[in-house]
Amino acid sequence: MGKKVIVGLDFDGVVAYNPFRIARAPISYVKRRLLGVTKTQFFVPRNGFERIFWIIMFESSIFPALGTALLRQRVGEGKIEAHLVTGRFNFMKDRLVAWLERFKLAGLFSSVSVNERNEQPHRFKQRVITQKRFDYYIEDNLDIVRYLQGKTSTRIFWIYNVLDRGITYRDKYPYLKKALEAVMMRQSDQSDQ
Question: With respect to CATH, is domain 5-192 assigned 3.40.50.1000?
């Protein structure tokens, strides 16, 4: 058997299917093109109302994404060591844990990293990716993918949505299953060399 691949995965939009992620493309367009915001920056909820809105928005991650069965299989075979890295803020941790338990995914991950200090999600993810030295990291937020490029030796895979499919990116996939298949193919190619 070849080397076990260490894979980091985002939660919303990667491990959990989130239909609201389609709104990211128009929001990013408005932010960058109309408001002139070029720096990667995310809203951090501070008060009760903002947190309730955030919870409602992220409760739309209603079921496991296409590919979680393959992830479970590869972890069970010892081919992948999976780590969950979510930018979800500290007030959402209990809901994340409950979701993972509900779908029997809690024991699948070697580690679960939650943004408990409410850092900017892209900086939090960069820190965790650097510390854990993943071979691959799978993310669905294009702003975060672009931010991470060149800041870590980890290969960053992007899960795009239908509105972003025309954007060029070396490692882009429509959903988790395709990204995991690409990871396994790359590992197979490397072990053949």
Answer: yes
